[in-house]
Amino acid sequence: MRYFFHIGYNGFNYQGWQKMPNITSVQGVIETLLSQILKTNVTIVGCGRTDTRVHASQFFFHADIATTWEYDLVFRLNKNLPNDIAIFDIIPMDGLPHARLDAIGRTYNYFMHTHKDPFLSTISSFYMGKQLNLEEMKKAVMLLPKHNDYRAFCLTPAAQRSTRCKVTAATLYVNEPGNNIRFEISAGRFLRGMIRIIMQKLLLVGSGKMSVDEFENDLVSEEPLKLVRCAPAQGLYLSQVKYPFLEIPSRSELFNSLAQENRWKAV
Asked: Which residues does the annotation mark as catalytic?
């Protein structure tokens, strides 16, 4: 039977979601433990990939499991998983829906703070520089849904069958004191490094090192940029994954408190 697992993780200690030789990945940790508990080899398929140190307040993977269990598998997994990975729900599915291919929408949030805070250092990106021009950054953000090809905002464009992405929403938020910024973006798919490249360029716009016109020129470029820099990974969260048959809110209390609507106002 196919099951969807609804999970969340703090990615700071992992080299991304995807299992690869000689690295510590979220997929590898979960897959090994699940196989040990169920006493059978289990392969899990994630709804996407997150890079090194990127978080997921909501993530889904599917697994085909023939054996049955008479114990609380959620409890047993959470008891044995590291504290930075949590299993929220295990959902039996009809048929064979695919965690990655059947997802119709994904939302990411990027958090940044402009005041040094040791308690935010692994869950938000610290920016120490001149005051950012949020209005100019907003103008650049508003361009994102108007374009569909993000070749120049991808770390590995040559490895992609297509670099087309339909951004359905993009919004820049700031808190009341003005020392925390949140960038939220939704699309059907994202390319490797795309959001962190966007965020780095938004910071260049905000600091006056890049104009909005230059931002758009990069965005519409048909050639990969020669020098690509990314904003720090720990500010980025995969925060929502939507399916035609499944749409549930994040169960992460920390993320929900960070993204609480009354804490933010749109720029």
From this structure: 51
